[in-house]
Specification:
With 116 residues, the protein is mainly alpha-helical. 64% of the residues lie in helices and 0% in strands.
Length: 116
Amino acid sequence: MQERDKLSLENAFNALGIEGKIVDDRSGLVGPRVISMIINEACFLFQEGSASMKDVDLAMKLGTNYPYGPFEWADKIGAENVLAILDGLLQETGNPRYKASSFLRKIALRKESFRD
């Protein structure tokens, strides 16, 4: 997006009273990237035996007021889509924080759900 287009878009949002920020076009964008990271961290937590999937989902819903827990969200989005976002981010950035948990990868490759 060219700079003048960004300014026009920003001005249009401001005129409507909507606060927004233009972000670069990158893997995962913003929302899916954040949710994918939360799902991946939940997978590491479960994989380590620290909590059950139900407990993680409940804790996130109560603690953050999210409409779904990470595993519920993963089932709605599809584990294979979450994995694709994380793999894309890892490839694009080289940052190991985007490395998918082996549990997430297993569920995605088997096309299984996270439901207990």
